[in-house]
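Explain this protein:
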Amino acid sequence: MMSSFADTTPFKSNPLETRDDLAKFLTGILDPLASHTSPGGARIHLGHTATHYDEAAAQLEGFSRPIWGLAALLGGGGEYEGTKRWVDGFKNGTDPNSPEFWGPMRDKDQRMVECSAIGFSIAVAKEKLWDPLSEEAKKNFEDWLGGMNDKEMPNTNWLWFRVFANLGLSRAGSHRFDAKRMKADLDHLDTFYIGGGWSRDGPEGVIQLDYYSSSFAIQFAQLAYSKLAQAEDPERCEEYRSRARQFALDFVHYFDEEGRAIPFGRSMTYRFAMSSFWGALAFADVELPAPLSWGVIKGLQLRNIRYWTKQPGAYYPDGTFTIGYCYPNHNMTENYNSPGSPYWCCKSFVTLALPETHPFWAAKEEPYPAALKETTKALSYPLHIITNVGGHAYLLSSGQQCSYPVKQSAAKYGKLAYSSAFGYSVPVGNGMLEELGGDNTLALSDDDGETWKCRRATKEARIEDGKWLRSMWYPWKDVEVETWLVPPQKESPLWHLRVHRIKTGRYLSSAEGGFAIYGQRKDGRHLDPSTGEDFGTLENGVEGRATSKAGVSGIVDLTDGGSRQGKALRTDANSNLIVARAVLPTLLAKHQASDGNVWLITGVFALPSVGKNEGAAAGWSKEWKKRPSVLAEIAALIKA
């Protein structure tokens, strides 16, 4: 096809099997930044989109985030020809008399975020990044970096950024190192810990347990600290390694056999930062719990990075990152995503700090552990039931929500399911159903579909008997929705079940979506109603279903006497994170105001294509006929 000329990346040919391969990939990411770097090296300008913070901080972000990878490479004995750009940047960015000065710290300043990578870089690559500076430059540098020690910070994972700033100052022998401040921050961060290896992203009452609780921030930071501060703080460091061992046995379920992680929550534009936890385990020399081994950890990390080297939409033609997930998409971003934000993914290069003799690099890469395939696990801390039955990893979710305003937070935390193969979708407008991106949600409207509400604040969520999730949602004062989410059953492994009890004091329209799926035919044109092709069809009627090169997605009303209409809805472009053109199997209905309960029972079917084998797998139609059953305990509640 003519469009195939654009279906490539600058990195697709890299096999990413060895330490040298990973270093080559990092070099390929760092090199294109040269033409976007200011004359003094302190700022990297990658685009003109705005953030809630100032432009100088955005350009500092572009400068600092690649340092996660550069520092690891240099700290591990490697070399990079462009290192001088960052050394010059440290000099000019911290000099108040330089036109490239980053500006002084203020309370809750975005500059604080970037101090994490900068402090880490001094701690692991002092000889290459700190020692070449003049005494005057060192003084300016330490004064700027230490300037955050008396400033107010958000009560979140941000406190780790000051810890790493102080860790860097300590390694540099700076008088601006504040040991008392660092210990107070660490002691407070430890109050976020809730058990089982998990920490929430804030104090009690915050119920976000997303990638910030793991690879993006807290777990990664704990592990890096445990390596760098072992001599000074051995008891805390061992506690962090213990937490990581526990956490790893849950976190492994968020990845599938192809290396993809389940998109969930905010900051998805950080991409393969999602797998940096596995590299941090190696960096910290953590003793691994079975069934994990160094070969397994190596596979989890490298397969995820390989996946991202092959996503054309993740890169501009010059090799710099786009803002988005699998393609440029500002609908799913947050107001803190600058053009430099995606380079947070450079945390995943942390294993370059390790020698080739380290067990991570010496081990033979192993596939996803056989003992964890075709399994379902209830994770009580994040309130997820997570499964890889059926060819992809996906989670059922209730109980998480963002504790502060974040764009599209209902889509990022409130959906019923999230998939490594099908991702999730976000609204692209505030009106009709096609704009909603309503995959894996029960959307309600009280104005005949002019506007829709989706679950955001989930209440009274719990996992019952390890079997299902149960929760409440109150979209209006006179409407309550209780939902049960049931993972795949042995008799119907490609389905999961949803049961909703709606009590409403007003007339409502409902739209319940399954998994959004790639919406084009073999010939590249959009899907049409059934034409008898091998794949590339829509089925509408009493159920909604779509097949395409991405596999099969469907939804069925299983309510006794149910009258919901099934439709494969063509969603507006750029709503799904993984595919820009998607269709969404959906069930539609109307509900009159009633003092009684309205019950909706829904079966959701999904079978993604695997590897290079496009389309629905053989035998899928047989599995489609194996409808899930309502478990006896829930059936009794319906009859009561």
About this structure: The mean pLDDT is 95. The chain has two domains: 2-372, 376-639. The longest helix spans residues 110-129. The longest strand covers residues 598-608.
